[in-house]
Design brief:
Blueprint: H1 3-23, H2 31-48, E1 72-74, E2 83-85, H3 90-95, E3 102-109, E4 112-119, E5 127-134, E6 140-142, H4 145-148, E7 151-152, E8 157-158, E9 163-171, H5 174-182, H6 194-202, E10 214-225, H7 238-247, E11 255-259, H8 271-285, E12 293-300, H9 303-308, E13 322-324, E14 331-342, E15 347-359, E16 362-368, H10 372-378, E17 385-391, E18 395-401, H11 410-413, E19 425-432, E20 435-442, H12 448-459, H13 471-479, H14 496-500, H15 507-520, E21 522-524, H16 525-531, H17 539-549, H18 553-561, H19 574-587, H20 594-599, H21 604-609, H22 614-622, E22 624-626, E23 644-647, H23 657-666, E24 670-672, E25 681-683, H24 692-700, E26 704-705, H25 707-713
Helix pairs in contact: 1-2, 12-13, 16-17
């Protein structure tokens, strides 16, 4: 093929994959495949001297992150991508150019890059976050200032009076990734990895962002202009800059100082080995982390030397930052089965089962293939020779089919029946970026997997807080026919003897579960609405509706059923409104017939039609949703007005910390997650604890009070 034509082909494929990488839920190629194509394109550009328009070698990331109508912002300091290598021995050579020979080794985080700007000139001398922007294409990114307040590790104000620009990564942990995927509604497309989830989450405009835990880790101090009277000075080294950011309240990437060069090699002959040893140790550590890392970054500790070197292309000079990408260990094996695994959303996911291989020190026999489209693309058949690797040294992936045959038949590429309930499945087209992705869905609304999901969510701590009903326990109860609808939880005493006689239970276990169920009968608006699993209505939205309806669930249900408009409520958009109406049509059909239902005056046709509708109706028979007493105090005012609390440790008088937080907010106070100089009180029943929050509170002079002291404070 002509070199120019091949370059055009590579540019198109790489840009399509990059768009899916940043904006989609499913990827169209692995990082390994993308890197291989990118390297091939760079080689062809060097050979021909031609760089095509839109070549990914001359731009950074995606032109658009998320869409969503977000405002576009030009970076004051361009966010360039780092030059990369897979040769670890390049680093001692490169950093021998630095005056000191010192360098900083840190993890290369796999999330969404954000650039934060703080300015103290307009905030009484206290540095306030004035802008948060995605990297975008390196020159222009999307404004995420609103979303930044919901991201852990991003302080809204800092103790610096001048101007500060910080760059870092917004991340989703693997555990949070699994939690969110397991709680998606039926028909919602699952996220393929934590990075895509992080990208999608931080672009949310709705308060649904509150229900997702995103963390930020700073990796570079980009710019710093101290005020005239500022006591904090500009750090002289990269390491000191990261230390300063940590002191100012930022989450900071793991890092370590290493030496790559010495002016006296006769004395320090082993120094090149030192940097390699540190890098190897950081590589090994990746397997213990709960967040995604896709390599290492090494930067010169000498700011001055690094900044004096010119920027070339779309990369900064290597002393400013130089990325090490692991050479993915690809192993050949034989595919023995395509196993279909049912998720709680009803999606049936393909899993490749193959002969055991050793990858990154562990034995691997399985890898997710994500969706039907990828099965078709790779033409995976039993007996094929495939290559597999671990993405980010953690997640097993199928790289290639080395012996692909003809196109697959429908039966070869689809499960056809649900592996759990045996009902027929149906293909469904979802959208990922600019692509259509084919997935397979179970068509049975009563599939046990879907039922388990519903009950697990209902029992969670932030919902009805029913302790003792784990996922496995609920699965057993569903299979035995003890529970079918949510209301069945409140008549579990019917099966007391059966449950007590089950393996692993006993009378004590049953008693504890039943006590927890009984406690949950008394609740309030927010946990109850959150527990129902209404699509697009999480805890954050429930709080907004609670405020608008003053805790009156019945009035809220009436308005949902009658398709009242909700967009006049601050924070509620059209998508949430439509989702509520759809849900109400399915679950609230009993409302016009309630009097007839109570009187037992309805036909068999009515009964059949309303079977699903009656689930919430039956539930309300057992659950008492308390409506708070009216108060004359204006909104936002109360005996705790203006006070900020942080809660840590276990609680004794409240069901959980969420209930204590609700009490604080009810009385006009505010509860946050981190102790700062603005914190009024830290609530911890172990006042003498040496925990991090206690230490921070003592450091800042923040009073530490017990739960009993808090109750005295509010007169209870």
């Amino acid at each position: 093929m002509d070199k120019t034509l091949r370059m055009k082909e590579l540019v198109n494929k790489l840009n399509e994959a990059s768009n899916a990488y940043y904006n989609g839920k499913d990827e169209i190629m692995s990082n390994h495949e993308w890197d291989t194509m990118f390297d091939q394109l760079a080689q062809l550009e060097e050979e021909t001297g031609i760089i095509l328009p839109d070549s990914p070698t001359s731009k950074v990331g995606a032109d658009e992150i998320g869409g969503n109508g977000l405002k576009k912002v030009r970076h004051e300091f361009p966010a360039l991508s780092l030059d990369k290598t897979k040769d670890i021995y390049e680093f001692p050579k490169v950093f021998s150019k630095a005056a000191s020979g010192d360098c900083v080794v840190m993890h290369k985080l796999d999330g969404c890059t954000l650039c934060l700007t703080y300015d103290g000139s307009r905030n009484g001398g206290c540095g306030r976050l004035v802008q948060a922007v995605t990297r975008g294409n390196g020159e222009i990114g999307s404004d995420m200032t609103y979303q930044a307040s919901y991201i852990e590790g991003i302080p809204m104000t800092i103790g610096f009076k001048g101007k500060l620009v910080v760059r870092g990564e917004a991340l989703m942990t693997y555990s949070e990734f699994e939690r969110i995927n397991s709680n998606l509604e039926e028909g919602e497309e699952e996220y393929s990895n934590p990075r895509n989830l992080a990208n999608s989450t931080i672009t949310m405009k709705e308060p649904g962002l509150k229900g997702r835990k995103v963390m930020f880790k700073a990796f570079k101090l980009v710019h710093m202009e101290p005020a005239v009277d500022d006591e904090i000075k500009v750090p002289e080294t990269f390491f000191d800059a990261l230390t300063l950011l940590e002191r100012l309240g930022f989450g900071v990437v793991d890092h370590e100082l290493a030496r790559a060069y010495s002016s006296n090699p006769d004395v320090d002959s082993d120094l090149p080995d030192q940097i390699i040893n540190v890098m190897n140790r950081f590589s090994d550590k990746v397997e213990t982390l709960d967040y995604p890392v896709d390599g290492l970054v090494v930067a010169s500790d000498d700011y001055k030397t690094a900044d004096e070197l010119p920027v070339t292309g779309h990369h900064p000079n290597r002393l400013t930052g130089f990325a090490f990408k692991w050479a993915d260990e690809c192993i050949e094996t034989i595919l023995r089965e395509i196993e279909w695994s049912s998720s709680r959303t009803g999606r049936i996911n393909p899993v490749a089962v193959f002969d055991p291989v050793q990858l990154e020190g562990t034995t691997v026999t399985r890898a997710s293939v994500h969706n039907v489209s990828i099965v078709k693309k790779l033409r995976l058949r039993v007996g094929d020779k495939i290559s597999v690797f671990k993405a980010n040294k953690i997640i097993p992936q199928v790289d290639k089919n080395l012996t692909p045959g003809d196109e697959l038949t429908y039966a070869e590429s689809h499960a056809c029946t649900c592996p759990v309930c045996g009902m027929e499945t149906s293909p469904m087209i979802t959208h990922s970026g600019d692509r259509d992705v084919e997935v397979e869905m179970c068509t049975n609304p009563n599939c046990a997997v879907k039922q388990v999901k519903k009950f697990v969510h209902f029992c969670e701590r932030d919902c009805m807080d029913i302790i003792g009903l784990s996922e496995k326990t609920l699965e057993k109860f569903i299979k035995k026919g003890f529970i079918e609808q949510l209301a069945d939880l409140y008549i579990l005493d019917t099966f007391e003897h059966d449950i007590a006689a089950m393996d692993g239970f006993g009378q004590k276990s049953y008693d504890n579960i039943w006590k927890s169920i009984q406690r949950s009968r008394k609740t309030t608006f927010v946990p109850f609405i959150h527990a129902l699993g209404i699509p697009m209505v999480g805890k954050g939205q429930a709080k907004l509706f609670d405020k608008a309806y003053k805790g009156d669930v019945r009035k809220f249900f009436d308005d949902v059923y009658n398709r009242k408009g909700f967009t006049d409520i601050d924070g509620i958009g059209e998508k949430i409104e439509l989702s509520l109406w759809d849900w109400g049509n399915k679950y609230l059909g009993w409302i016009p017939f309630e009097d007839r239902i109570k009187a037992g005056n309805y036909s068999k046709a009515d009964e059949a039609r309303m079977k699903l509708n009656l689930e919430i109706y039956h539930l309300l028979k057992y659950v008492n949703i308390e409506v708070p007493a009216e108060t004359d105090a204006p909104a936002g005012e109360g005996i705790l007005s203006g006070k900020i609390f942080v809660i840590t440790g276990s609680v004794n008088h409240f069901k959980n910390r969420a209930e204590l937080q609700a009490k604080i907010e009810e009385l006009g106070g505010k509860a946050t997650g981190s102790v700062t100089k603005k914190t009024s009180y830290l609530i911890n029943n172990d006042v003498e604890s040496t925990s991090g929050k206690n230490k921070k509170a003592k450091e800042l002079g923040v009073p530490i009070i017990s739960e009993d002291e808090f109750l005295k404070m509010i007169g209870e």
